[in-house]
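G., before I forget:
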Amino acid sequence: MNRYLSIFLLCALCACSSSSGEKDLVPPEILPVEEYISPTNCQEYPLGTFLPVACLFTDDVELGSFNLEVHNNFDHHTHGTEAGECRQDPKKDPVNPWIYNKDYKIPAGQSSYEVDLKIPIPEDVDLGEYHFMIRLTDASGWQQLRSVSIRLIEALD
Amino acid sequence: MIASILAAVMLLQLQDTVQVLGPATIYGESKRQELMHLSLGSVEVGRNYIENNFSGTLAQSLSSIPGVQARAIGSGQSKPAIRGLGFNRIAVAVDGIKHEGQQWGDDHGLEIDQFAVDRVEVVKGPGALMYGSDAIGGVLGIYTNYLPIKAFEGRVKLFGRSNNLSGGLSARLQGRREHFYWKLHLTGSDYADYKVPTDEIEYYSYRIPLKDGTLRNTAGLERDASLTLGYVSPSFRNDFKVSETWSKSGFFANAHGLEVRLSEIDYDASRRDIDLPWQSVSHLTLHNHSHLHGEGFTLDGDVAWQLNHRQERSEPVSHGYMPTPPDDLERDFRKHTLTGKLGGKIILSEKNLLQTGLDAEFQHNRRGGWGFIIPDFETLSTGLYLTDRHTVSEKLNFNAGLRYDHVYTDIHGYTDWFTTPDEDGTPAYKQRSGDISRHFDSFTWSAGLAWSPGRWVLKANLGKSFRVPIPKELGADGVNYHIFRYEKGSAELKPEQSYQADASINWIGKKLSFRLDPYLNLFPNYIYLNPGSNYYEGLQMYNYTQAEVFRSGFEAQLTWKVLSCLELEAKGEYLYARQLSGAKKGYGLPFSPPWKAGFDARYTFPGDGFVLMDVRIAGRQDEIVPPEKPTEGWYTLNFSAGKSFSLGPVVLKAAVQLENLLNRRYYDHTSYYRLIGVPEPGRNASLMLGLEF
């Protein structure tokens, strides 16, 4: 009896020590491109111009996809991930706020990917404080976030 | 492969055990008999155990049993798990009726009054044979069937906890006049926001300062009542019970919703108020149980109706293309469950006890509110089982059983209440979930033996269990607001199956006793919510898929009665899990418990009193899946003491517990709040005063 119990226990122990193979345990990173990253916290953009997005995504194995999003912070609902507060206006209700939300797929097999995009800013949206979010995944499902506050100002003539 | 090796090992064991049994004097006879009645590993605890280990919730009070974990989801709520499996992978049964709440949810606790519990039986292994789907990881059998013996008796308990400034009162009144008896339970408790030993938590680079280490808006309250009317005669017993459990509790304010948010609400104004976001749950049960006892047979019949009504409210906020909702009702679930059971035991001969039964359960779930996560559904499950217990002698018995189940699930489609631009930019009401109708059949079995040579009790069991995919797994298609992700079900999922080999090695000595419960477990198609790399409107997509999963582990316990008044105990548990196929091949499972150990010294003094000191240790957990983080190991030092005083016809009981004496800051890898970096509660003192008459 004891002999078989030991076999049983041995099975359990073997299972514990078996190697698990290569596992990706590291989230991707959102980095500047040669010390340049855009947008940065508290930057101001006139209506009708472009919001330049520039950064470098890296991962130790393989990148997945990313999402760029803009939503208003007229109700002062949260901080960004960057340190420091930007100038705040009094709270207000949105009338025609700018909503931008787009998912992007990174080509398969990339461990490094440079983003250089210009998002057109509509001419007729509400002015004021917005949040710009970058969300990034790697192929294994790890996620990284970056959130900054930006401000939309009057269109330039 | 593994299963066939196991089967071979078990067969060898079966042949090997039919041996001549020598006479032996058995100590701890009752303990031995308790162990012998089931070939699966099980632990039974009574009311005293729950009272001595009294914690904020029933799951926490039971978590000192090796192999049982409580997954904290805030101070007032926690979810039980057995050997790391929780949610719909364990069945919680109250007096034999499966408790049906919204157990799929991350932050939904158990709607059970822990003061009304008389006895708990934890079955650590596949319990599908008696309970059908969901009992794949084990059964938490809760019993409230105490039979009053006096014309009038009762007890009143007053309790409080310092960490969340909670206070409560529970009363049980009951009586019996010849054949008739009644029982009345009333419990009420209130608690404030709980404290953690930190001033700040960090989640995805967001820093959230905490005022005085208080987790804002985790306050709550609970109100429970139940009434039982019964009749008992030598051959017949009938219990009719009505019970209602109601609670309202806040969600941690800074991490509910789509992102870390600030709010107009002044959460720090009071530790006691419950602001948005909060949840309320009402669980109403009507249950009639009849038991007939005749010459060579018993017959049990149950009819029960449960209504679980849950509401989750939060500040209405626009998100993406969803405009600001009109009210704060984010989710509303109303689930009716009707259960009917008929079971019989037939004593075929001195050696054979046959058990057979038929179960049926109907569920009807309706959703409401502006947030969608699970669709409306109905399910109808029926099961038929037959088991035989063959007693060779008092020292050896075999048991084997078969069960067949049929489950029909009908899911209703769901379409958004707001429009989203389609590919051409035309606004359209998007369909989130389609109409799904599925039939599932399952055939399960179990076989085992219990053998008790001398002071040993050796048990082995091999069984197959199953679980039908729940509507969330089949039809979820929406944002999980609690955890910032998009969850998508799969209508094609197959019933989850599990093969498990269990052993239990017990030695019951005069001074020294030990117990080792090892197990091997294989899921050919474990249903897993896989974190993917795609986005849907900015939310990371998680998809339900199926993967082969291997699990193995053990629980161990060593008790040494040094003196008649001094007992030392060491206990531990270990679990290994590995996904063998699919997108996360090589990874473990989410919320895998790390190894744990506990050491305690208990001094009993004359006149029914005790003092207990214990250390609990947990190892580091590096077995993670996205989005988890590795969790450091930890230890806590705890103290408890209790004493009873006889004052004529009444007994006064006092118990005190000091938890996390050193106010250590640690994270529990299995806690829901671990994901957002919230440590476990700091130092806590709890006091319970009871009067029994």
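The interface with chain B takes residues 1, 4-5, 7-9, 11-12, 15-16, 18, 20-23, 25, 27, 64-67, 69, 75-79, 81, 99, 101, 103, 105, 133, 135, 137-143, 145-146 of chain A (CB under 8 Å). DSSP finds one helix and eight strands in chain A.

More on Monday.
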